[in-house]
Design goal:
Helix content of chain B: 55-70%
Number of domains of chain B: 1
Structural class of chain A: mainly alpha
Number of helices of chain B: 6
Distance between the termini of chain B: 12 Å
Distance between the termini of chain A: 41 Å
Shape of chain A: flat
CATH topology of chain B: 434 Repressor (Amino-terminal Domain)
Helix content of chain A: over 70%
CATH superfamily of chain B: lambda repressor-like DNA-binding domains
Radius of gyration of chain A: 21 Å
CATH architecture of chain B: Orthogonal Bundle
Number of domains of chain A: 2
CATH class of chain B: Mainly Alpha
Largest sheet of chain B: none
Number of strands of chain A: 0
Radius of gyration of chain B: 12 Å
Number of strands of chain B: 0
Order of helices and strands of chain A: HHHH
Order of helices and strands of chain B: HHHHHH
Oligomer: heterodimer
Shape of chain B: globular
Chain lengths: 143, 72
């Protein structure tokens, strides 16, 4: 098969892929929905499609950050944003950690684990956004 | 967007297929550009201009009033 060089066909091909992605996502949601109804939450999450769905959602979320950063208006200091986000994340982490540790049936260790998971999950996108903002600022300075 | 691509192409005695081959696109794309249905990228516009020995203004320039009229 010849490689497509025509820009119009490349665009149309991308559009076709988008349609296929929508159909695929609807299919996955339908299968997971069926599993949820027939086998319950456990049955749904044990389906490998659940992992595929989650990974796709995470990748899409990260790719969307690329666009939302470019959509931001006004000059934002990446460092200031980074420190604000980290402070908020630490506050949330401590709050959740303490609440979990104080809950019935959970110990100190559970609080640390819950807080740690939230911290790690939060710090990655924060640094990614920081990296994107820094890159964008550097590009603006080049102009 | 309306343009003068067809006139320039015919004056150079080129068919849509020949022009398409020279710029590396399909004949349909040239046809759609001539009809004004497809807006090519600046890169493709330049490639077409190089082949037809014309400037961007010669082929693609439209006055602001015409542009606004076509947009609405």
């Amino acid at each position: 098969m010849k490689k497509i060089r025509d820009e119009r066909l490349i665009l149309r091909n991308l559009n076709n892929i988008r349609i296929a992605f929508i159909v695929q996502t609807i299919g996955i949601i339908a299968i997971l929905g069926y599993d949820l109804v027939t086998k319950g939450m456990e049955g749904m999450t044990s389906n490998p499609l659940w992992i595929v769905f989650l990974i796709t959602a995470v990748v899409l979320g990260y790719l969307s950050m690329n666009i939302s950063v470019e959509h931001e208006t006004g000059e934002k200091s990446p460092k200031r944003g980074l420190w604000i986000s980290i402070s908020v994340l630490i506050a949330i982490t401590l709050g959740v950690g303490i609440l979990v540790a104080l809950s019935d049936g959970f110990g100190m260790l559970d609080g640390v684990i819950f807080g740690g998971i939230i911290f790690v999950c939060g710090i990655v996108p924060i640094f990614y956004i920081y990296h994107l903002r820094k890159k964008q600022n550097e590009e603006l300075e080049d102009e | 967007m309306r343009n003068r691509l067809k006139i320039a192409r015919v004056s150079m005695d080129l068919t849509q297929q020949q022009l398409a081959d020279k710029v590396g696109v399909t004949r349909q794309t040239i046809s759609l550009i001539e009809k004004g249905t497809y807006n090519p990228t600046l890169k493709l516009c330049l490639q077409i201009c190089y082949v037809l020995n014309k400037t961007l203004d010669d082929l693609f320039w439209v006055d602001e009033e015409d542009f606004e009229r076509e947009k609405n």
